[in-house]
Amino acid sequence: MQWLGKHVSQLGTGGNREKMNKLGLKLFSNNMAVQLNMLASFMERWIMSKIDG
Q: Origin, by domain of life (predicted)?
């Protein structure tokens, strides 16, 4: 468990923190699109299964 704490604290230092922040922003902005996409494909499959059934 201790090595995990060390690893996490290393991630939060210097340039890596900036990278993580940018990644976080990117993920946050992409998240909405991804969720809508997943919802759309789920609905599509659900409708298709109702039609086939």
A: Eukaryota
